[in-house]
């Protein structure tokens, strides 16, 4: 495996981005947003999305000026060897802990909502086994699988949305700004880390066919994700009202349990496999990027050999919290609070330093 | 279950150490050290999570 030999196209890149970030609406992220913003939780992806435009724009500008260099090489070039290593190590550590927490959340979802009698370690090991295998296959395979299953997953999400909104109450959305405009603005700003994964996606810059494809793909993916996140969160409020939705840990799974398709009930069995496929692809992409970063940090060319070690360590670390539903929720909020300023300020600092170095001519 | 976890843990530990040794032979000492730390964490962490 090592670094990919072939490049991925715009379609594959968009699909990977959609899986990595778009699936956040189906875990405990909505719960975090509703917790602080009540019925205005669905506005947070929009406001933090508007704020994320600046770092994204700067990152794209930097990437376009350093053709054929990934974010890793650009950081080394801008910050120098020592400081660059520290920045990248911090990025890797945040990414790694986020994978641990996120996989633990997904295991908790599967074990508390679907396979209640199966030991969590077996579910976790299966999840990580599949994802590690996917990641080991390389970026091209992750990209092509993402693109081939994306239509089915979008149709399944769209169907669940139609059913949810059809059975919901529009009145539950009011008052639109929930706890107040200022609170909504303040809390949404803190949740800019929702789009943090774009920073990691920039590490794939040299492996996308052209700069134009990368730029176009980033903006298309960004707007699709923003719309996906907001509409699904609107549907949760419409179905449950804010008081109930604040108490739910995994609103998407409660939603697909609550809705019915005519005389058909328990249609979560229809949506669950699609969600599972999306989760496998998401973590395969996450693992690939994180291990590639680790390999670059420590100059390990064939980083695929550390895939089993990473997957095993993630399982052991993810099983550390005794009550994952609550402990991971708090830890994720903590990592999010660290990641938000990093995602916002790192591109600004990079752009300023590159400008001072005279590298930004285009 | 503990037997299964221990077997996986030991296998992955030796596999990772093997890769660390090959990196050391290739003169990539920093990479090798990182891999050994990774291998040690694989042996230590289950005692706080799975075997507790």
From TrEMBL, chain A:
It is a multi-pass membrane protein. The chain crosses the membrane at residues 42-66, 78-101, 113-135, 147-172, 192-208, 220-239, 270-291, 303-321, 333-354. It is found in: Membrane. The keyword Metal-binding does not apply. GO terms for cellular component: membrane. Keywords: Germination, Membrane, Transmembrane, Transmembrane helix, Transport. InterPro entries: Spore_GerAB. One of its GO terms (biological process) is spore germination. Pfam families: Spore_permease. It comes from the Bacteria. NCBIfam families: 2A0309. Belongs to the amino acid-polyamine-organocation (APC) superfamily. Spore germination protein (SGP) (TC 2.A.3.9) family. This is Uncharacterized protein. It comes from Oceanobacillus halophilus.
